[in-house]
Write a structure and sequence with these properties.
This protein has 338 residues and is α+β, with helices and mostly antiparallel strands. The chain has helices spanning 26-45, 137-157, 170-173, 181-184, 205-224, 310-337, and strands spanning 6-12, 53-60, 63-65, 74-84, 89-98, 105-119, 186-191, 227-233, 236-238, 246-257, 262-272, 281-293, 299-300. A six-stranded antiparallel barrel has the order 2-6-3-8-12-9. The model has no long low-confidence stretch (mean pLDDT 90).
């Protein structure tokens, strides 16, 4: 029998959760997804005797934003444990938007998250995870395949961690040609406070994802100069923990544009203010996809990205490959459902 552990969170969407046209920020939804996943995985990992622990977010698989969520709707976020390895937990989360005036409901997001439990007594000690029971050997095998696949992708992503995004200050931006990478490139600086952190004193994954979505949204808006919304997020990899008191720099740059979408690469770098000997380090990285909308919420063509360097051309081609792969997977999924 598969574990019956479930967690549900519900909250009405307020004006400060949304952009100027009433669409709820993707970062707000990602933060709620992480909160539900963090609760259920931490609860599960503390069902055994021994060290008490808190589950830390290690990775979020690709997340598609199927429908927009609006101000006044109630977000219902439900999480379920679906696989456990020796030191990690897979949680699958569904998000549903409810119109409380009409009673209508729609699924807006589906996400898969991976958590790793750390001891409260020793933040560097990873706790062994209690194993869940499966309905069949096949179900366990499918979970193992997902675990091995994400593990391999995390290792591949680390190869990009040496790359940096040099911030563009406002006076310099005026000299950049329209629709170039430099024209829309953006950064945000945030001092990590107690309200951002877990019991360990490390930043909640949901807080980080919200900051990343904000920067990606600024990049997209600067490029299109229209209303923009998050369409999807490729796998978000949390490479290293961010401690309370760090200054984080969240940087985003446009990497690829198709006719109706744009891909933005986002890095999060942490700089300890107290333990300065540790130096600045890359903590998180991900790709966000945005679409441009008109005043009626209909998709608009995205201005083509102007490429100026060989590196930009290389990143554009890599983004094109990811775009075509995602498109092929989506078409295959639609064919299976027919």
């Amino acid at each position: 029998m598969l574990s019956i552990a479930h967690q549900q969170l519900s909250r009405i969407m307020r004006p400060d959760d949304a952009n100027i046209v009433g669409n709820v920020h993707g970062g707000t939804i990602l933060k709620m997804i992480e909160e539900a996943g963090g609760i259920i995985s931490t609860r599960h990992c503390n069902t055994q005797s021994g060290d008490r622990c808190v589950a830390a977010l290690a990775r979020v698989e690709r997340t598609d934003f199927l429908h927009p969520m609006l101000i006044g709707e109630v977000a219902h976020v439900s999480a379920e444990l679906t696989y456990t390895s020796r030191h990690s937990v897979e949680v699958q989360v569904n998000v549903m938007a409810e119109n409380i005036l009409t009673g209508s409901k729609k699924v807006t997001n589906k996400a898969t998250l991976w958590y790793v439990p750390f001891s409260l007594q020793n933040v560097d000690k990873i706790i062994e995870v209690p194993q869940i029971e499966y309905a069949s050997p096949e179900q366990e095998e499918e979970g193992k395949k997902r675990y091995e696949a994400q593990k391999m992708e995390r290792l591949e992503t680390k190869e990009r961690n040496g790359e940096t995004i040099i911030p563009v200050i406002s006076p310099d931006r005026q000299t950049k040609e329209e629709y170039t990478v430099g024209c829309s490139q953006s950064s945000l600086i945030h001092l990590v406070g107690p309200s951002d952190c877990t019991l360990h004193g490390f930043v909640h994954g949901g807080v980080t994802m919200k900051l990343m979505d904000e920067v990606a949204g600024i990049v997209a808006a600067r490029h299109c100069k229209t209303n923009i919304v998050t369409a999807s997020v490729d796998a978000i990899n949390f490479h290293r923990k961010i401690k309370k008191g760090c200054v984080v720099t969240v940087s985003g740059r446009m990497t690829f544009t198709s006719n109706k979408s744009m891909e933005i690469e986002v890095f999060v770098d942490a700089d300890p203010l107290v333990e300065t000997a540790k130096g600045k380090y890359r903590a998180v990285s991900a790709f966000f996809t945005y679409i441009s909308l008109d005043k009626d919420g209909k998709p608009l063509p995205v201005p083509t990205l102007k490429l100026e360097t060989q590196e930009e051309k290389k990143r554009f081609e890599e983004g094109k490959v990811r775009y075509l792969q995602t498109k092929a997977k989506r078409q295959a999924e639609q064919e299976r459902q027919q």
